[in-house]
Amino acid sequence: MLLTWIGFFVFVALLLFLDLFVLNKKDHVPRTREALLWTAMWTTIGLGFSGFIYLAYQNGWVDSNLEPKQAVITYLTGYLVELSLSMDNVFVIALIFAYFKVPAIYQHRVLFWGIMGAVFFRLAMILAGVYLLEKFDWMFYVFGLLLLYSAVKMLGESADIHPSDNPIIKFVKRMIPVTDDYHGHDFFVHIDGKRAATPLFIALIIVETTDVIFAVDSIPAILGITTDSFLVFSSNILAILGLRSLYFVLSSMIDKFEYLKYSLALILAFVGVKMLLHEVWHPEDWLSLVVIFGLLAAGILISLTRPAPAPAPKDPIKNPMIDEVPEDRQI
User: Fold this and answer.
1) pLDDT tens, position by position, 207-230
2) Rg of the chain (C-alpha set)
């Protein structure tokens, strides 16, 4: 089992290395065609990994009682849940980049390092979640209620974000000087002998903390499907690996997916109810996959066929690099 985990980490590290240091070595703005090809490639890898899942559970490479076919269905369900919830994450990331006016040529770099951090944070959260569910049966009710709360909140939340109000960002700005301008793709620079963070680093921190917040919803959602830690982690990570290319595909079409949030809310509610009724309701694994896929497809189709309501005018945004930054910390 340990070798399987090590092998998966090596596989992910290889994919990330090829992505940043070989295929995207030079900063550039991916065209829509390129982004679509990359999205197709990442999706193929994610879906194709189900073949390895079958072999691993057939040959006992993972310590689990699941049958190979059941493990594949569970993996695909978890992958689809994370992929669908990642779409909502994409829209928030687009708002963050717009808020900080991150040049499009450097957005891929921010997303790459943001996902690097997400791998470690999510592993810790998944292992903690699996441990709690295995040790304390009442945690199913806690997670179920959390998902129902998240579903209700998703329907009522506003798309407006104010990163300058983030306490972590306020702390960073008070600990280290922050430049007003971008300095290429660097996160830190030296100016007049002083080390300073660039707006790109501030944007990275916001993307990272946002992912952790989203993981509070997505990880319990997958744990509501299975507590097999390898299935939860592999489906989660392989779904977010394609987040960068998915961002460049969807970021320009945000307004066309107005009704997707209702599908995501229903998906969270479905898994939440499933966790609350785990002692009396045991639907077939394929049923969860069909329900989740159907809700996601319905949200996308309705969004594309029905015109979205006109957005309300927004107030102008102040320069986030100088909001509430002490004068002695500005450069």
Assistant:
1) 888 888 778 878 898 899 999 999
2) 21
